[in-house]
Amino acid sequence: MDLREDALGDIGVVEILGRIDSTTAPTLGERLTGILGARKALVLDLRQLEYISSAGFRVLLLAAKHADAAGSRLVLCGMSPKVRQLFDLGGFLDFFAISASRDDAIAAVR
Amino acid sequence: MKKPATLVYGSDDRPPLGVTVLTGIQHAGMNAIFLLFPLLVSREGGLSAHQIGDVLSLAMIVMAAATVIQAYPLGPVGARLFCPAIYSAIYLGPSLAAVKAGGMPLVFGMTIFAGVVECALARILPFLRPIFPPEVAGLIILLIGLTNGTIGVRNLLGIGAAQPLTAVDLTIGLASFAVMIVLNVWTKGLSRVFCGLIGIALGYVAAAALGRVGGANVQALTEAPLVNLPGFAHLGWSFDAAFAITFAVAAVSATTKAMGAVTSYQKLNDAAWVRPNMRSVSGGVLADGLATVGAGLFGSIGMNPSASSLGLTTATGVSSRRVALAIGGIFALLAFLPNVAMTVALIPRPVIGAALVFTAAFILVSGLEVITSRMLDARRALVIGVALVAAVSIDVFPAFFAGLPTGLRPFFNNALAFGTLVALVLNAVFRIGVRRRQRMAVDPARIDADAVHDFMGAQGAAWGARRDVIDRASFNLTQSIETIVDSCAPEGPLEVEASFDEFNIDLRVSYTGAPLELPDRRPSNEEIMASEDGQRKLAGFMLRRYADRVNAGHKAGRSTILFHFDH
Question: H or E stretch including B152?
Fold first, then answer.
């Protein structure tokens, strides 16, 4: 897994490349917590995400909880149909705020 | 069958009578052009104008019967689809050769022989499923579109015509083409449904108004009687063993085209289509073979399902089997009204060309969709790629193939038949060495995440499996190994076995260690966040839910999970 980070003022943008599994999830969790502590919103771009396991979903849930507690917002965007199907499978489509594109996600948190 | 959203009227729907009849007229108008083939053979056979009228009348009655039987099967005969029949270009070459050697009786006799060969092949088709995988079916659909498009361009531009087309002819053809596109893309309802008919009609009227409709044929039209009871005096049958191979080859070729056409009609009618229904294909080919027998008995050349109608059906969205009854009725009526039939046959070539190009576009895309729905490794890519190049080469280098021995020419005189044959042969050859069952051992101390992730992908491509099903199997393999290693303390390697046939993908993971929990209920978000146990329950829930069937067992310290996926 690789992370590409960007910032637009108070909005952090993280693009996740590759796979989120039990090996890579802890690294992602630490990074998301760090960004959410420093920004008012975080956009997670999942365009290049190939696979996400239950460990990855747990990290995203914890990040969302952290965002709520800190009064910031977390928005996911750019899901491929394959990854979207996994979110559906795990019952997460209604839980997370999801936008079609990065631009839409940024507009949603502004 | 699940009716696709693109169809206005599906196979078993009952459109209003007006829509049924007008759609029937549209198809009849397009398919009447193929009466040209028995007409050409009859002229070559030296029949009188009156006898040629009889040939055309009887040919239309056979077309009517063949179209109806495909839609409304009798026993095993028929595809149970709206799949109109036409006279096939595949039989034109052999029939012209036969008529020179033995006159019309030899054409009719050998046509019956070819039909019998096709009927025999139809009966063994259900056993040939492995040599006819979906991507080959997709290629055949693509080739039908390509062939139709090529014939369309030839007619639209007047390539090879006895008299070169003028700028007026070309303008009429292009205007017809534009009308069809505009009505199909930017309108809804009846104007979309009848876009082909309206385009053809406007083109025909414009051509007639500008004096561009047909010469000597118009004279024949004016001389034809209003009503004609077809005669049988020209009928007679003979058999010549010297032509048996030629007509048998044509029958094989017609069989492959019928297989592809019926498959295309299946896909058109079913949003949930994933593979050819071989029972329907077999019934369709059997009906096609019997239609060819009937054509021989009543004095015509061999038949095949109409690819032009396939495109028109895709474009208009009317695929009701009741339209077959309308076409049957129209041709049965026209059989007794020779001048009306000739009027239809006089539709200017550029106008017919426009309709063929227009409909070919839809068939081409449909074929591409079928091909790309499957994962393709190097072998399968070669099957599709080489067969496509082979098919195209028939039209690009006709002189080369014309120089081949006479007996082989039926294989090489039709791009669709040759491309299909190459694909079927290569597919059979490349099946050698592809394992239906593959194993992998995973060391829990040193997991190669890439190898695990790529395992199902590589197998899916080798098997030509559906991409969506392989994605699910790949997730279950990766997630199950991850969870077993994290929570079941496996001793020694995990053994993975994946197996495939066209209907099933089974994935078995076995290891020495505690069994994996596969709950029916999703843990709450709070449970998932609270501990890694919640995360494991989520994994088990997703694994159970993603597979179509899961079996888990634990015996003598050894745990096994079987994930089954319908394919």
Answer: helix B134-157
CA B78 – CA B429 distance, rounded (Å): 31
How many Å lie between the alpha carbon of A39 and the closest alpha carbon of chain B? 23
Which is nearest to B424 in space by CA: B118, B123, B131, B90?
A: B131
B512, B554 Cβ separation under 8 angstroms: no
- The answer to whether the CB atoms of B525 and A19 lie below 8 A apart is no
A21 with B478: Cβ contact below 8 A:
yes
Cβ neighbours for B344, distance < 8 A, ≥ 6 positions apart: B28, B29, B32, B334
Q: Which residues in chain A have Cβ-Cβ distances shorter than 8 Å to B534? A: 58
Length of chain A counted residue by residue? 110
* Residue B215, pLDDT score: 61
Q: Is B533 on the interface with A (CB under 8 A)?
A: no
**Strand pairing class (A41-45; A11-20):** parallel
Judged against a pLDDT cut of 90, whether residue B345 lies above it is answered with: no
Q: Do the chains contact at B535 and A51, CB–CB below 8 Å?
A: no
Confidence tier at B157 by pLDDT (50, 70, 90):
very high
**Shortest alpha-carbon distance between residue B375 and chain A (Å):** 15
Pairing of the two strands A73-77 and A49-52 = unpaired
Cβ <8 Å between A90 and B538: yes
A87 touches chain B (CB under 8 A): no
Complex-level ipTM: 0.94
- Listed in sequence order, the residues at least 6 apart from B233 whose beta carbon sits closer than 8 Å to its beta carbon are B51, B54
Name which CATH class applies to A2-109: alpha beta
For A51-87, what is each residue's pLDDT tens digit?
A: 999 999 999 999 999 999 989 999 999 999 999 999 9
CB distance B529–A65 less than 8 Å?
yes
B536 and A CB contact within 8 Å:
yes
State the CATH class of domain B437-566: alpha beta
CB of B546 within 8 Å of a chain A CB? The answer is yes
Structure tokens at A82: 């394959």
Chain segment A12-30, per-residue pLDDT in tens: 999 999 999 999 999 999 9
The DSSP result for A49-102, as a single string, is: EEEE-HHHHHHHHHHHHHHHHHT-EEEEE---HHHHHHHHHTT-TTTSEEESSH
Give B477-523 pLDDT, tens digit per residue: 999 999 999 999 999 999 999 999 877 899 999 999 999 999 999 99
> Which of B475, B480, B546 has the highest number of chain A CBs within 10 A, making it the mutation to test binding with A?
B475
Q: Which of B4-13, B157-166, B328-337, B406-415 has the lowest mean pLDDT?
A: B406-415
Domain chopping of chain B, boundaries: 17-163+175-430, 437-566
